[in-house]
Structure formats: structure tokens, C-alpha cells
Automatic annotation (TrEMBL):
<keyword id="KW-0735">Signal-anchor</keyword>
<keyword id="KW-0808">Transferase</keyword>
<feature type="domain" description="Exostosin GT47">
    <location>
        <begin position="101"/>
        <end position="399"/>
    </location>
</feature>
<dbReference type="GO" id="GO:0010417">
    <property type="term" value="P:glucuronoxylan biosynthetic process"/>
</dbReference>
<dbReference type="Pfam" id="PF03016">
    <property type="entry name" value="Exostosin_GT47"/>
</dbReference>
<dbReference type="InterPro" id="IPR040911">
    <property type="entry name" value="Exostosin_GT47"/>
</dbReference>
<keyword id="KW-0328">Glycosyltransferase</keyword>
<protein>
    <recommendedName>
        <fullName>Exostosin GT47 domain-containing protein</fullName>
    </recommendedName>
</protein>
<keyword id="KW-0333">Golgi apparatus</keyword>
<dbReference type="InterPro" id="IPR004263">
    <property type="entry name" value="Exostosin"/>
</dbReference>
<comment type="similarity">
    <text>Belongs to the glycosyltransferase 47 family.</text>
</comment>
<keyword id="KW-1133">Transmembrane helix</keyword>
<dbReference type="GO" id="GO:0000139">
    <property type="term" value="C:Golgi membrane"/>
</dbReference>
<dbReference type="GO" id="GO:0016757">
    <property type="term" value="F:glycosyltransferase activity"/>
</dbReference>
<keyword id="KW-0472">Membrane</keyword>
<feature type="transmembrane region" description="Helical">
    <location>
        <begin position="39"/>
        <end position="58"/>
    </location>
</feature>
<keyword id="KW-0812">Transmembrane</keyword>
């Protein structure tokens, strides 16, 4: 009985002992948890401190872009400067970033009669002279190179479309109004802005995508006689015309650009027939070939080169020659191995770009021609050049190439970067034709008033 009475006491001691142990164990676990929490808080605090310190150090040791070293006290410029700062901080992955990021171009907002009114005719933005429209459009859509603040601009783009006045007689662009229209635009900007007058237009950029550039005439003798207008002689001209010898129509600071070809039409053609597809036409040319060329002011069309091609190779099974227009001619180019690119009235022609972007080896027959963007397009690696005097030997020349190094030429030609460099897009893409124009301008920064002003300061 006594033993039964003592058991509860023993059990109670055991119970109390276990409670105490359990309580002490929970306290120990709590202490361990608190220690771990403090440890992780310390690690997190240290990591965040290191991150913000590194960010601060890096951001405050970057070189200051030249585009921000010039400030204006004009209150009217403050909103546009805020916009520029915003654009520069949110466009880190923009395709035009990189070596060109500090270059700035201001695009004049001219009355619509100088440009957009001409777009009522759809041909204006799609024909071979439409680079004047394409470059303007790409710059308007750009948010890095374009600046809304003229005081930080390196160059000033003057958007005047002069190739869209199509003749009602033959449908070709009539450019007799070009000098008057451009002169009027210059009078306008020089009276409303200070930028033209301070440099006499040396940092202003125009497009002249016609046969003989800023001479504004389709016939060489007339173009030479008229010359480049005095009011453009100090500016920069983006022009399709270029030769390696002295010529009055390139006696101005200039950049040779490619003629316009719609990237949409190219993409549609290549979707049906890729550049590396089957090519069952050995030598291709479609275009004007006069059997009996007319003497026009002592000159013959294409210096009779096209006439020789027709007379010598019409009927030759290797040559596919056509004298009439065909809307689907791109489908013929993409099937061809060699595409003839003879001169017309001017040395250059749209066939040069069409051949390259559709993977047909261009055979250039235009003595002394200066080709667009030689830094980006290694023309000697992707094309053949045949002297005008040797046009009658085309057959054996092309046979020899086909039997020797054609594969290497095609491999170089089919590089997507080559195609990209010759096409204008609605938005500037790294490496495309507008990007190449900007790159060329970046090599002319000695003309930038802003840069010279900064260097003096």
C-alpha cells in the first residue's frame, strides 16, 4: 500500500524532469533559430550593401558621352533634353547602340509640301529612287540617333523628296523642280533656325538618289553643264551616283548609297525560293537593250554595251536575255547564277542591289563605278567586274569563273550581313543601309559644329 502511494510522487518527479528537459530543449532550438536568422540577416545586409556600393562606383566612373557635355540655358529646350535623357537610359539594347551611340541627328520638321504630300502616289516610297523616303522614315522612327534637341545634334537631316514628280508622258521621275524645291527649303530653315547659317550648311545632310546625284539631271552632259547648285556645295549629299575618277557631279562631300529595293518584296521572293536553292539560269539580264541605239547629244545609251550584249548573246543557250518589263522578274534573278549589271545612262542601276540580295553573282559592267558601303560589303569577294571593252568576251569569262571559284564567290555573297547592308528598313537595324549611312556620317564628325565647340571649350 505504501509503495502504491509513493509511485505517483516518483512519476511526478519524472514528469517534471521531462517537462523541464522539453522546455529547455525548445529554448535551445529557439536560440539556434534566432542565431541562424541573425546570421542570414547579416549576410543579406552585407550583400545588398556590396551591390549598391558596386553599382554606385561603376555608374560614377563611366566616361561622360560627348552628347552631354554641351548645355543650353534656353528654357524651351528643357523638355526635349529630358526626353533625350529618358531615351538614352531606356534603350540600352537598341540596335543602333554601340560605336555610334553618341552621334546625334536632328531631323527638320518641314511643311508637308516638301516631303509627305508626295506620298499620295504609292510609287514615291517604292521605286528605285525612294531611298530619300526610306532614310527619312527610318530616322523618324529611331529613338537613339535622332535627337529632338538641335543644340546637341552633330548633323541636320533636311527631308526634301524630289524624285516623286512622275512624268505623265513616260512615267519616269521628272526632277526639273529639284533645285527650286531644295532652295526653298534652305531659305526656310535658314530664316527660322540658326544652324544652317553658323556652318553654311556643312553639317546638313541631303539625299540625291538620282542618276547624277546633286546635279539633278538624267543626262550626263546636261548634268555636268548644270553642276551642283551653289547652295549645296558645302553640305553632305547621300547619293547613288559615284565614280572613282574626277566628276563635277561628285565634287561635294558625299556618301554613295544603294538604290532602294523593298525589303518586303525581297522577303516574299526568298520565302518561295531561298538563295541557296536551285539555279537553272546561267546568265540573266532583263532590261532595255537597243538593237540600233540612238545618238542623243553625241552619246549612246549604255555606251552601246547593252547593244553588244544583245547582238552577241541573244540566242546563246547560256544567256537568258529579255528586253521587256516583267513584274515578277525577281523570281528570275533568284534562279540565276550570274546577273548582268551594265551601265545605263548612269553607271549604277538597281540590278546591282537586286542581284546581291537575291543571291545572284553581279557582273558589273560600268568602268570606274564607285560602289556603296565598301567597308561593309567586300565587293571584290562577291561580284565580278568586266571592262566595257571586254563585254563581247562575257561568255568565256563567265565559263572560266563557273569552273574555278564560283562556289567561293557564292558563299561570300550569301552571307546575310551582305544582304542586310544594302536594304533600307522602316526602323534602323544594326548593319542595314540606314545604319551604314549613320556609320559613314560618324567618320565625318569634323563637320560637327557641336563637336568643334566642345573641343574649343
Amino acid at each position: 500500500m505504501e509503495e502504491l502511494l509513493k509511485r505517483p510522487t516518483k512519476r511526478r518527479g519524472f514528469y517534471v524532469e521531462m517537462r523541464l528537459l522539453h522546455k529547455n530543449g525548445r529554448q535551445q532550438q529557439q536560440l539556434e533559430k534566432n542565431s541562424c536568422f541573425k546570421y542570414y540577416k547579416w549576410v543579406l545586409w552585407f550583400s545588398l550593401t556590396l551591390y549598391f556600393f558596386s553599382s554606385y562606383f561603376i555608374s560614377h566612373n563611366k566616361p561622360i558621352p560627348l552628347s552631354r557635355t554641351h548645355f543650353s540655358n534656353s528654357k524651351s529646350n528643357l523638355p526635349s533634353r529630358a526626353l533625350i535623357e529618358s531615351v538614352n537610359t531606356t534603350s540600352l539594347q537598341h540596335p543602333t547602340r554601340g560605336a555610334l551611340e553618341d552621334l546625334k541627328i536632328y531631323v527638320y520638321e518641314l511643311p508637308s509640301k516638301y516631303n509627305t504630300d508626295w506620298l499620295s502616289n504609292e510609287r514615291c516610297s517604292n521605286h528605285l529612287f525612294a531611298s530619300e523616303v526610306a532614310i527619312h522614315r527610318a530616322l523618324l522612327n529611331d529613338d537613339v540617333i535622332r535627337t529632338f534637341d538641335p543644340y546637341e545634334a552633330d548633323f541636320f537631316f533636311v527631308p526634301v523628296y524630289v524624285s516623286c514628280n512622275f512624268s505623265t508622258v513616260n512615267g519616269f521621275p521628272a526632277i526639273g523642280h529639284a533645285r527650286t524645291l531644295i532652295s526653298s527649303a534652305i531659305q526656310l530653315i535658314s530664316s527660322q533656325y540658326p544652324f544652317w547659317n553658323r556652318t553654311h550648311g556643312s553639317d546638313h545632310v541631303f539625299v540625291a538618289s538620282h542618276d547624277y546625284g546633286a546635279c539633278f539631271h538624267a543626262m550626263e552632259d546636261r548634268a555636268i553643264a548644270d553642276g551642283i547648285p551653289e547652295f549645296l556645295k558645302k553640305s553632305i549629299i547621300l547619293q547613288t551616283f559615284g565614280v572613282k575618277y574626277q566628276h563635277p557631279c561628285q565634287e561635294v562631300e558625299n556618301v554613295v548609297i544603294p538604290p532602294y529595293l523593298s525589303p518586303v518584296s525581297v522577303r516574299k521572293t526568298l520565302e518561295k525560293a531561298p538563295v541557296s536553292g536551285r539555279r537553272d539560269i546561267q546568265v540573266f539580264f532583263r532590261g532595255k537593250m537597243e538593237v540600233h541605239p540612238k545618238n542623243v547629244s553625241g552619246r549612246f545609251y549604255s555606251k552601246r554595251v547593252r547593244t553588244v550584249i544583245w547582238r552577241k548573246y541573244d540566242g546563246d543557250r547560256r544567256f537568258y536575255l529579255q528586253r521587256h518589263r516583267f513584274a515578277g522578274y525577281q523570281s528570275e534573278i533568284v534562279r540565276s547564277v550570274f546577273c548582268l549589271c551594265p551601265l545605263g545612262w548612269a553607271p549604277w542601276s538597281p540590278r546591282l542591289v537586286e542581284s546581291v540580295v537575291l543571291g545572284c553573282v553581279p557582273v558589273i559592267i560600268a568602268d570606274g563605278i564607285r560602289l556603296p558601303f565598301p567597308d561593309a560589303v567586300k565587293w571584290s569577294d562577291i561580284s565580278l567586274t568586266v571592262a566595257e571593252k571586254d563585254v563581247a568576251k562575257l561568255g568565256p569569262i563567265l565559263d572560266h569563273v563557273a569552273a574555278t571559284n564560283l562556289t567561293i564567290i557564292q558563299k561570300n555573297l550569301w552571307d546575310p550581313d551582305v544582304r542586310r547592308a544594302l536594304l533600307f528598313n522602316d526602323h534602323v537595324q544594326k548593319g542595314d543601309a540606314t545604319w551604314q549611312v549613320i556609320r559613314a556620317l560618324s567618320q565625318k564628325l569634323d563637320r560637327s559644329y557641336r563637336r568643334s565647340e566642345v573641343s574649343v571649350q
